[in-house]
Write a structure and sequence with these properties.
Protein name: Dolichol-phosphate mannosyltransferase
CATH architecture of the largest domain: Alpha-Beta Complex
Organism: Halopenitus malekzadehii
GO molecular function, one term: glycosyltransferase activity
InterPro entries: GCTrfase_AglJ, Glyco_trans_2-like, Glycosyltransferase_2, Nucleotide-diphossugar_trans
Strand content: 5-15%
Number of strands: 7
Oligomer: single chain
Largest sheet: 7 strands, mixed
Radius of gyration: 24 Å
Mean pLDDT: 87
Pfam family, one: Glycos_transf_2
Distance between the termini: 41 Å
CATH superfamily of the largest domain: Spore Coat Polysaccharide Biosynthesis Protein SpsA, Chain A
Helix content: 40-55%
Length: 304
């Protein structure tokens, strides 16, 4: 049975968050959110016990990773109309919850992203993480044509119905990126709300690995471009192949003219690279035209 207001479920994925979970659950309950759901990924500390004692419903996910935890929770354990997704490390402020949920309650949007850069407290993010976040956000805006300012933010609010429209498969921290990409692809309205982002309390260790997870996120952005921006996806590979083929052809031609040395194998490889590159560029243009026509058809159908 659900407890508290049926309208909002505060969803907290956890993994060894004993240092902060009790305070985080208490903060949301004091803010008026009695329906706090903790989905634990197999913590080896007292996370589950402390969360339950603080008043949260606690379930243990069947798989691994934050992405899997969120999908499983919404599919099997959430009946509320709205979901407020936050991290359990006390970096987000429960006082921002009302502002996060307001656009949903007003019907202005279906997905809300909390912008951590609007009020980032000193020490909340390392210099390396800041640079990585900026690069990822710029790449997202370039590839997918939307500027959501902070697509890696873990503070989200969304309607359960809109979440079920998204095709999500990411297991770990790539879930935030995947949700942003899917919102663009599915035409889900998104609003960005400024929030406060605080440093993790002492004794609380992060589960995020900047280099590894950053690489995964970049690959996810590029992989998703295949269906959301095919011109970029195929065009970038095509342009690289063409450029490589042209450079190789220049070298072959120069060595033949200057030194009388022929490179038949390299000449074949360069021709193949140029041909492949042009084919990929043409395929990218055609795929982009088809996608544009498809989207225009959907928009026209919705207007009718």
């Amino acid at each position: 049975m659900m407890t508290g207001s049926p309208e909002v479920c505060v969803l907290l994925p956890t993994m060894n968050e004993a240092a902060t979970i009790a305070d985080v659950v208490a903060d949301y309950r004091e803010a008026g959110f009695e329906n706090v759901l903790v989905v634990d990924g197999g913590s080896t500390d007292e996370t589950r016990q402390l969360a339950a004692e603080a008043g949260a419903r606690v379930v243990e996910q069947s798989g691994e990773g934050k992405g899997q935890a969120v999908r499983e929770a919404v599919a099997e354990h959430v009946d509320a109309e709205f979901v407020l997704l936050a991290d359990a490390d006390a970096t987000y402020d429960a006082a921002d919850a009302t502002a996060m949920l307001e656009p949903l309650r007003d019907g202005r949007t279906k997905h809300v992203i909390g912008d951590r850069f609007a009020d980032m407290r000193p020490g909340a993010m390392t210099r390396l993480n800041r640079i990585g976040n900026r690069l990822i956000n710029r790449a997202f805006a370039r590839i997918h044509g939307r500027d959501y300012r902070d697509i890696l933010s873990g503070y989200r609010a969304f309607t359960r119905e809109s979440f079920e429209e998204l095709s999500l498969a990411a297991e770990g921290f790539g879930i935030e990126t995947e949700m942003a990409v899917e919102c663009v692809k599915r035409g889900v309205p998104v609003e960005v709300v400024p929030i406060t982002y605080r440093p993790r309390p002492e004794g609380s260790d992060t589960n995020l690995h900047p280099i590894r997870d950053g690489g995964i996120i970049f690959l996810e952005l590029y992989r998703k471009a295949k269906t959301n921006n095919p011109l970029f996806y195929f065009g970038s590979v095509g342009a690289t192949a063409t450029a490589g083929g042209v450079l190789m052809a220049i070298y072959v031609l120069y060595d033949w003219i200057a030194n009388g040395v022929g490179h038949e194998i390299l000449a074949i490889v360069s021709a193949a690279g140029i041909l492949l590159g042009f084919q990929l560029l043409m395929f990218g243009f055609l795929a982009d035209m088809i996608l544009t026509l498809h989207r225009e058809g959907i928009d026209g159908h919705e207007r009718e």
